[in-house]
Amino acid sequence: xxxxxxxxxxxxxxxxxxxxxxxxxxxxxxxxxxxxxxxxxxxxxxxxxxxxxxxxxxxxxxxxxxxxxxxxxxxxxxxxxxxxxxxxxxxxxxxxxxxxxxxxxxxxxxxxxxxxxxxxxxxxxxxxxxxxxxxxxxxxxxxxxxxxxxxxxxxxxxxxxxxxxxxxxxxxxxxxxxxxxxxxxxxxxxxxxxxxxxxxxxxxxxxxxxxxxxxxxxxxxxxxxxxxxxxxxxxxxxxxxxxxxxxxxxxxxxxxxxxxxxxxxxxxxxxxx
Length: 273
Known about the structure:
alpha+beta
């Protein structure tokens, strides 16, 4: 600290010594460093918690979304008979299927695809949230894009009676079937993989005797249930190093990454197949 020296009537203030200045700098540096460390740790903790919440939210939403649509597989209003049911109402395949067309998206290699068909009714919606009218059948196709997104496209089939009048003949009402396809939409981001194992009922008691991949399902009408597994990541970087970090992973074995990952499951029992 400075010292005040009296010389007659003149008062002079002596400045800080070099040692005092160095001590003050060291103490200040220690305090600032501590504050910075606390700030960085708080930011990292907040980022970690946000990423964990995002993985949980996306994983639960994705599995619930697929499960809700799967439960509708094969629903057929017994009163309406104009539009013929889609058969089979449930089919599983993979992204390697060359017949799949998901406009605007490229499917990720070695991921599962599932197609679910059902009739519309009041309050019934397709996987894109669009209402499906009675006597209209919709096929919902879930897949994974190469940008790690759960996507879904729909195709509706409806039959209407149209009056047809030939040039020389009697007019008559004839059924006309129209098929309309919608472009796929993103359901959830950060979804890396999808695997569905189908429970096959081999003895006709309505319960699954074994769970198999889609390639091992010989008859889709014998599928009694399904086990959905979804791999989800945090989208944003969490770790500074690449890690094999995946919460509850037993179905998937993802490559090392600096993203947080989680595996989510949902079991669905079919009642309309």
